[in-house]
Every structure is written in C-alpha cells, then in structure tokens.
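Inputs:
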Amino acid sequence: MAATTKERTKPGAGDAEPSQDKRLEMYRMLVELRYCEKRAHDLFLQNLIKGTSHLSLGQEAVAAGFAAAMRPDDWTFCTYRGHAHTQARGASMTGVLGELMGRECGLLKGKGGSMHLTDVAKGAMGSYAIIGAHMPIAVGAAWSAQYRGTAQVAVCFFGDGTTNIGAFHEALNMAKVWSLPAVFVCENNLYMEYTPIGAVTAVEHPAADRASAYGLERIIVDGNDVDEVYQVAQRTIGMARAGKGPSLVEAKTYRHGGHSRADPAKYRPEGELERWLERDPIKVYRERLLGMGVATATLEGIEADAMRKVEEATAAAKASPPPPASLIEQDVWADGGAAWRN
Amino acid sequence: MAATTKERTKPGAGDAEPSQDKRLEMYRMLVELRYCEKRAHDLFLQNLIKGTSHLSLGQEAVAAGFAAAMRPDDWTFCTYRGHAHTQARGASMTGVLGELMGRECGLLKGKGGSMHLTDVAKGAMGSYAIIGAHMPIAVGAAWSAQYRGTAQVAVCFFGDGTTNIGAFHEALNMAKVWSLPAVFVCENNLYMEYTPIGAVTAVEHPAADRASAYGLERIIVDGNDVDEVYQVAQRTIGMARAGKGPSLVEAKTYRHGGHSRADPAKYRPEGELERWLERDPIKVYRERLLGMGVATATLEGIEADAMRKVEEATAAAKASPPPPASLIEQDVWADGGAAWRN
Amino acid sequence: MAELTYREAVAAGIAQEMRRDERVVFLGEDVAAAGGVFKTTVGLLEEFGPKRVRDTPISEQAIIGATMGAAMTGLRPIAEIMFSDFFAVCWDLVANQIAKTRYMTAGQVTLPLVIRTANGGGVRFGAQHSQSVENWAMAIPGLKVVAPSTAADVKGLMAAAVRSDDPVIFFEHKGLFGTKGEVPDDEHVDELGAAKVLREGKDATIVALAMMVPRALEAAKILQAEHGISATVVDVRSLVPLDVQTILEAVRKTGRLFTVEENPRLCGWGAEIVSIVGEEAFYDLDGPMVRITTPHVPLPCADALEDATIPSVARIVETVRTSMG
Amino acid sequence: MAELTYREAVAAGIAQEMRRDERVVFLGEDVAAAGGVFKTTVGLLEEFGPKRVRDTPISEQAIIGATMGAAMTGLRPIAEIMFSDFFAVCWDLVANQIAKTRYMTAGQVTLPLVIRTANGGGVRFGAQHSQSVENWAMAIPGLKVVAPSTAADVKGLMAAAVRSDDPVIFFEHKGLFGTKGEVPDDEHVDELGAAKVLREGKDATIVALAMMVPRALEAAKILQAEHGISATVVDVRSLVPLDVQTILEAVRKTGRLFTVEENPRLCGWGAEIVSIVGEEAFYDLDGPMVRITTPHVPLPCADALEDATIPSVARIVETVRTSMG
Ligand SMILES: Cc1ncc(C[n+]2csc(CCOP(=O)(O)OP(=O)(O)O)c2C)c(N)n1
Ligand SMILES: Cc1ncc(C[n+]2csc(CCOP(=O)(O)OP(=O)(O)O)c2C)c(N)n1
Ligand SMILES: [Mg+2]
Ligand SMILES: [Mg+2]
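Outputs:
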C-alpha cells in the first residue's frame, strides 16, 4: 500500500459551513455541556461525587462539533474524560450526574462510574479508562459497519498523551489497511496528566505529525472553534461513510481545570490559562453568533434552558437512591447473572 | 520537540568505506553464518533439532555489516531469527548448534532453545520470541549506557512485520525523546510469517515511512550489500555514540527459506526467490571482492575454514549430552535456585 | 461419525457455525491464506471468502480490540491469538475491556465473541511459546474459559462458544493437534460448563484438563493394573463455568482428590478446585488433597528438560500411589 | 521513629536506597515533576535530579522494557505503573520477558529491578482502576511479589526489594496511602519472604494481605470480644517467596484456616495457601478451610456497591463465626 500523504491544516473549500439552525443547536450543546460540567465540579466540592472525575471544561467544542455532524446511528468511543461526548450524543443529564454520584438512576446504575459513561441506545459506545484501549475497539465497530454495509461511522476521541501508547499505532494501521469508516480525533490539550506533551513526544503535533505513518492526511483543526470542528467532522465522517477510509484529526484545545478532581494544575506556566480563556469556545462562539445577527435574547433563552435542565437533572439525581446490593451479582453474563459454577 | 526529518536512502558522503581487512572479516562472517545456518537446516531434516527454528539464510549481510561496525562492548538485541546476529557478535558455534539440539553445551544449556540465543559476555543480549518486546528492552540498555556515560550503543534488529505492533511505536518515541544511543534496524524481508507485509501495512516502507513519526531520518539501505550495511551501521552507531540520539534503519532483504522450520513458503509468487538469489549477499560480495582483486585462493581459504569450523562445531554439539534434569529448578533466581517458599 | 484430528476439528467447528450464521467472522495473523500456523483453519478462506476470514497485521491489541468492537455492534467474531503466551501483549483488551464492559455498563453491552489460542507445551518451543495460561483467564471475572481434550469436544465446545452471548476464551492444546477421535458429522453443539467423568473409580478422584487428560487416564489404568488403586478421572473441559457438582460428587465417592495441571504451580485452576473441595467437601475427604503440577519455573526448551518438567504419566502414578499408600 | 503515612513511606524507602546506591534510578508517568498521582514520590526529583528521576510518556511497554534493559546492563531501576490494572498493557514485558529471561538464559542475565504500583480498591475508581492483581504476578514463575500493609513495612520491604537481585513486583494499596504508622528513621531494611503473626489465637487462623490486614485484625478483636473466638492473624506481606512455615505453624496450632482476599474469587493467593495447607497440614485441620473474597465480579464503582463487594470486617466476623459453628 503506497503512502499518499496530503497535508491540510484547516477546513478547506468544500467543507460546508453549518446552517443557522445547526449553529444554534451547537450553541445549545456547548452551553449544556459547560453548565453540567460546572455542576459536576460543584457536586465534588460538596462531596456528593466520590472517587475521581475528569472534566472537559474548555474542550466542549470538539464534542459538540463532532456530535452535530454525526448520524444518530453513528458511534462515539471516548475516554474517562467523556461526560461531554456522552451527553453530546443525547445521553440523559440525570443519568450522567446520577452515575457520577453513584445513584441508581445513573446511566450505569452506579456500576461503572464517571470514567465509563455509556449509552448504547444513543450510540455512545463507552468511555474507556485505560489509555488507548478504545482505539482498536472503535476499529472493530467500524469493521462491523463496513461488513454489514450500514454506512455507520465510528468516531473515536482521545488525548495527546494517548498518541504515545502502542494501541494508538496498532489501531490506526489496521483501520487504514482495512479502509474502515472511522474517524480518530486527538484532543490535544497540551498535557497528559501533569506533564506537558512536548516533554514526552518526539514530534510537535503528536497526532498530525504521525498521520503519514498510516498513510493518512495531516489534519489540524482549532478545537476551540466549533464551526471549524463541525466542518472537519462533516468532511472526515463523510469520507468514512462514503467508503473512503479513516481519518486522523488533531484538534488543538485546552482544559480549563486540572487533569482530574485531585489536580490543582500548578504545573502550568503563568498566563497560559488566561490566554486560553480568551479563546474559550463558548465565549468565541457567542460573540460570533451575535456578530452574525443572532439576537441576544435567543442566546439568553438557550442559556436559561440549559441552566434549568441542569437544575432539574441535579435534583433528580439527588433524589435517586443508592443502587441496591443486588446489582453486585448481576450482569456479568448475558443471562443477567454472575454464576461461574453450578 | 520539533520534527526534523531529513531523508536519506543510501549511504552518502562521509560514510567511510570498509577497509580491505574489514571486507575480508565480513566475508568470513558471511560465509560462517551461511554454512552454520545450512547445517542447522540439515540437522532438522535429521530430526536432531526439535521444536522450531527460524533461519536467516539470505539475510546474513545485515548481521555481518552491523556486527563489523560495533564495538565489543556494544549490545545486540535480536529476535527468534537470531542465529546469525548472535554468532556475528562472537558467540560460539558449538554453543549455538548445541542449543538448537537441546544439548548441555548449548549457549543456554538447552533451557532457552533456538529462539532465545544469548551470549551476554559477547554483548549478544538476547533473542526475543514475542514480536516487539525487545525494542523497549533495547531502549533500557541504551538508557543505561547514557546514564553511566559509557558510550556503548544498543543495536536492535527486528522484522518488517514487527513495525505494526505497539511496542515498536512506544520504543521509538521514548528512544528519541530521551535521545538514547540506540540503532533500530528493520530487516524488511517482505513477509511477516506467510503474509506479504504490504497486505497488512498502511505504508510502503514499514519502517522508513514511519521514521518521521519519531522525528527521525528516513534511512533505507540495501540489506543484501554488506558494504552498504556496514557504512550505514558506522554512521548510525557513530551518531549514537556521539550522543546524537537514535536512528531507524530499514534494510531491504529476503529470506531464502520459509519463515520457520514447518514452512515450505508456497505463498511466494513465482520467480521471486530466483530474483533474490541473483542478489544473494554472499554471491554479490564474492564477485565484488574478486573484482577488487582479492585472490580466489584467499576466499576459498576462508570458505574452507568456515566449513571446518561448522564440522567441528557439529561434532562437538552432537557429542554433548542432554542437559541434566537438575537444571530444571536452577536459575529462576539470582541465588541460582527456584525456591518460592520456605 | 468421521475420524478427525483435533486440528481438523477446529476448522470443522468454526465452519459449522459460519455456515449457520453470517454474523460469525474470523480474524487473526496468517489464518486466512495460510490456514494458520498450526493449520487449524485450512479451508475457511476458500469456503467463506476474504470478507469473513481475515488476515491481520501483527497487532494483537488491534485484533482483540476489533473483535470486541465488532461484537458490540452486531457481529459474532472469532479471533485467533496464535500462541496463548501472546495474550500478554493484549491482556488489557481481554482482561480489562472485554471481561468488564458488560458489567460496568449494567448490561448495555453484549459481547458474543470467541478468542481461540494454541496453549500448552510439549513441543519444544521454549518458555515464551509453551505456557498453559488458562489460569490467567480463569482469574478474570467476565470470561468464560474452555479447554477441550478431544477432537469431538473441540467441535462441540467451539459451537457452544460461538453461540454463547458471552466472551469465551478457547484454549486448544498444541500437544493434542495431531491426536485423532470420532467427531459427529452432523451439527454438533456441546455445552459450556459440563465436566465429563471419563472413568469411574472408588479410591481417588483425578481431575485433569487438556493434554493432562490422556495422561491422567493412562495413569489411572496403571494405578489399577499395577497398584490396585481405582481412580475416577474427570475431564474438567470448562473452567468457567465450572462444573463443581460433578467434581464434588466424585470426591464424595472416592474421598481423595488429585489435580493434574500443566501450568506452573502457583494459583492454577487446581488450587481453585482444591479450595472448593476443601471448603465444601471437607468432611468427605480421607486424606490430603494433592496437586500435580509443573514446578513453578518457566518451561525449559530442550526435549530432555521439557519432558521432565510437565507432569507425566509416571509422575501422576507415582504421586497418587505414594500419597495413597 | 517518626510517624509517617504509608504514602510518605514510599518516598522514604526509595530515597533511602537512592542515597546509598547511584545505580538506583526511578521512572514512570508523572512521577518526577508532579511527585506522582498519589503523591507517593514527592521530593525525589528535587533530591536526586532529572537524571535519576524521570518522567516518561504514556508508554507502559516502553517503561517496563526500559526497566528491564537498564537492569540487565548495570542499573537497578525502580519503575512505577500508576495503577496495577495497567499491568495488562505491559504484561508481556513483565510476565514473558522479565520473569523468564534469567531462566531461559541459564542465568546469564540478572534483573535487579522493582516495579511498584498502586493496587486495590475502596476508593470508588471503578473496575479498571481498583483491581487487586497480586495473584496475576504470583502465578508467574520468576517474579517476587510483595504487598505491605503498614508504613514501616513499605519502607523496609521497598529497601529489601531494591537490594534484591531478582525482579520484585511491589504492590502499594491505594486504600492504605493515608494510614499512619511508626517508621524507623534510620536505615531500615526488611526481609522478603517473611510473614508476620500480628496476633496469636487458638481457635482459628486468619491470613490476610494489604488492606485486608487491618480488617482481619479488627475482625479478630470482635470475634474475641463478642463471640469468644480466639484468632491468630497472619499478615502474609510477601507472596513470593511465601512464608509457608509460619502459616502452617499457625494452622497447626489453631486447626482452622480462613483467608481474606480482596481479589476476585477464582485463583487468588488464598486458593494457593488453602491448597498448600490442604496438602501439608490436612491432618491438623479441624474443619473446612474457608476463603473470604471479593465475589467473582469486576469491582463496581458506587460507594454503596463497592463497600458491599470487598470483604468487610463484618463479613469476616460473620463468616468465621458461622463456619466455626
Ligand atoms: C495505560 C494507562 N496508563 C496511564 C493511565 C493514567 N492516565 C489517565 S489519564 C492520563 C493522561 C492522558 O493524557 P491525554 O491522552 O492527553 O488525555 P487528557 O487526559 O489530556 O484528556 C494518564 C497517564 C491510564 N489511564 N492508562
Ligand atoms: C506478539 C507476537 N505475535 C505473533 C507472533 C508470531 N510470529 C512469530 S514471527 C512472526 C512474523 C514476524 O515477521 P517479521 O517481523 O517480518 O520478522 P521475520 O520473521 O520476517 O524476520 C509472527 C507473526 C509472535 N511471536 N509474537
Ligand atoms: Mg491531554
Ligand atoms: Mg519479515
């Protein structure tokens, strides 16, 4: 197989701009994801969420831009940093907050926790907590779509740090060799946990500079610009759906908070956060929409709706009881049980 | 770290040609490796070698060219296809044949077998039978050299098929990020076991087309031309020794036989073997040396010496008894024993 | 009934299921065009074509990941891991992803898949190509684990594994590929989780798996003939689910338990069975429970050493005799 | 003696050895500048510098491979695998390479290395970040396996592990990081392979490891106070080498064996100990041997579920009491 490596770093001609409706849909999504994630943060501080959790604050445009470009029967595979991706596909906010709080109403009835949010009915095929594992799993879903001729596409999100693990390499090679309908999206937020990605990576752009190793186009997109993300998503998903094989997209973005619950993010150079807050995807998008003539009231209406939704979801999740102990020996097997002996 | 990817496909200016002595040394090595490997094949047919074995017939120039460029205290890491690499570093031929035959005189006293030939005293740091594993191990040796300031270099050989496994990716990235004295040598013999490498790889040159993903130079060399291999070895080992970091070399070559003992290699297209036999590294080199004015008698002398060496080693190995059962519970631990309890 | 080798029964079992169900697909390294390095899958590519029988790169994580992803989206894949030792390079996908995802998602994900692999020693391949790792799989909740000892069981258990909606790790034994046995020609579907009593005795129960089964049987014959010890022999066949009742019943009748394991000594399936018996049939025991295992060492390669390491008929006879005597 | 947390004892143990021996180096993800995600290695970078304390990419195979390669060429590396669950992504390097290479090379290669990792549950991290996998390591010949339950043992066993010329897998328990204990200020070097009898009783022996040790001790107190059952409590500490003699002796005195394991039920270290006792001290037993384990399921995440899954003090008390009649 010959390497044909084109380079492209921006959405180009032929990448359709989102319609006005799509834009408002995306704005709504951005705001909901943001408010819900902030709520999750508050619930931590109140110790209503235990364990760990990884917020997407600042990275919402990647989730929203791709979700807006997907067909309902397409599949999302994401990481432990998956609250936004899972909800962007339509998973219930109560189910998400309930899961974080370990309640029976949780998407996973409390069995999985924040790192494993899944809603198969919505095409949210799981959040995976071990770096890289979901990339070959997404390959398998794409293979299934190709085999069954359904024109479904598997979209797989992962971080910059994930580009250095073996599964990344194996998945991309096999996806290309089998010409599978998959889009791999690296959310480059500049850090693995606390270590800057540049300190542990042999190339500057951890995903894009490696695309050619899999015979793929080099694609970098501004991950804080939901329109740009949407356009790249349209194009790469469209290619996958049309049988033209996989893509690898590097979206440059930034997480506003620490890596996980416990992390105050002191390792960041001074001013870095502030510079990125200037480019907050919601701030940027709100300004753009206003500039395009969208009425302030329209946006405020969306924002108020979102806040109401978060309040309702929080109340519902809080009202839900802890999961019953009977769940412990359920659902190891397809028969619903956990028996390993007679 | 910025990607600075230069391209180079031939030894270039500044790569020193081997001296006449070096050339004769390499010819001797080639012939010894060839004769010994052929003898191993015969011993199979006589059922004196059990289990499996992977011959390097046709690929000897890679082993010889690199070994000739290494310092005695440099390290070789190789695969199950490692008879040539291990002997090229000076391991005893009797020890090799004895190991293949499961005799007490074996390099590993029969405990390891053909896939694990090792001679630490000669810098042959092991043959590894699980694809890719030795690449990160070689990284560790190179790290040790760098840490201790010994200017030793780790040279790691592997096949084309190995470029698709995760460990390849992790090892190359870390070697580059830590700027370690290591040279990774892909022996591209066109096949993994029975499947052509092109059928399972997203790029044409499985190693070279991926060098840029690790910020490395693209290097392809004719693996059947021992002079060319020697020159590239000199250059890349020299860079490593000088603190200039790792290299990745792709050597194009061909195995004359099947993948392993059991394989008749019927999957090859007609004429392919014949074309490569034309470019047999020993045939090519013999002609070149004669063309350079080396006397036929000199080469014939080397050949006769090698044949005698093989005969003697065979006889010695055959005379060696099977290893005693007392070895079974020896050398799990550094204290020489195998006790896991008191 | 035709006489097939254990090797041929593998392809026969897979083919039976692929004919029945289009969702069954098969992938692995050198499995298609070459028919597998052990020639266990010869003919599948020819019958089912390259869309259903696929050669992969040397990328075990991608193979097993793809298997999982395909299973969760409507296919029923069978993957080959060439040697069971190589589970170590894709163990995350097997033990952390495949085994746990149904549970973690409260049943949202169903994973009807089979991973088949060549397990065990005796063929002079050395420590990295000869391990018996069925205990690795047994230790992971969420995996079903099967290890047949005869050609008929290979075909029947393969069919059961493919039809199971749960992930099944299917251990084929390298040392048994050449053995022959009667295999039903017609559709043959066995049951996961059923042990087989191959011989009834009254003095001792010998529980064995895979290549240890013929050795246990042979040992039982010698124990009877030469030492007057009458032994029940149980072929466990399936480690998960485990047929505890059959084992307990045998021990209750005989009062003594011996397990014969090829894996290294510590934490094998034998320890699990001994522990179950030591809790649930303690008062039926007439003497110590004894595990016959490979010592806790990597497997040496040379024939002389390998044969002295894996439990042999002679070692089984000797251990049972001494312990009963 | 200073009072240190279990967490602080990790860095104290490593630092003690790094001061003593320049060949000791340390690598892992986020271990240097950040001091580790569990803050177990705070201060090491500052004291020993970036040459000896190194942050790595997210490349567990490279980390463990590099550890092995460095150990075979003159260093004595300590690697961190952040969560023990992640052994699954580098298991080949651990189980097939590090464990077997000395044996396969007939002793040519020596591997003085330590891999330390955060093991175990109780902190609501879910099934992929909470496993107790010490039985994975115990099942592999060629690995030494340690799992301390106190801060002092962390320091002392860490030193012993670093000084060992064999590869040691060092399991730190996430649930114990915050616990405190007296730790010798001076050089403190413990011994691999020695269990500790923490409490002497006459009716039953309870054998426990890591986080199960404080629970077993607490249960023993309750058993004594509320049920008049006097129990010996043994902290195994080291699974390989295993202090079989201490365990056998305790069982001989008490006649009953209970093991308390955090790992899922099948093929745990408890099964190994039960099997040894069931063979070697069978005639000293007064009743069934009972394992108290996590059921054979992945670990659920929600606090309500996780607490009901891992063996608790109440479950230990209840099981021992019921079983003792
Ligand atoms: C195999 C493995 N190694 C290490 C970890 C611990 N870990 C969790 S998140 C993380 C950093 C991941 O960085 P990146 O891929 O950039 O994703 P981000 O968190 O920035 O979204 C690490 C090292 C893990 N979960 N799995
Ligand atoms: C992880 C792993 N997967 C599969 C194998 C089986 N196997 C042994 S050699 C081989 C082919 C290797 O091809 P290549 O890297 O090109 O080396 P070559 O044999 O051609 O020298 C395979 C698949 C293995 N040893 N390890
Ligand atoms: Mg990141
Ligand atoms: Mg090859």
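Remarks. Chain D is about 40% helix and 20% strand. Residues 196-323 of chain D form a domain with the Rossmann fold fold (CATH 3.40.50.920).
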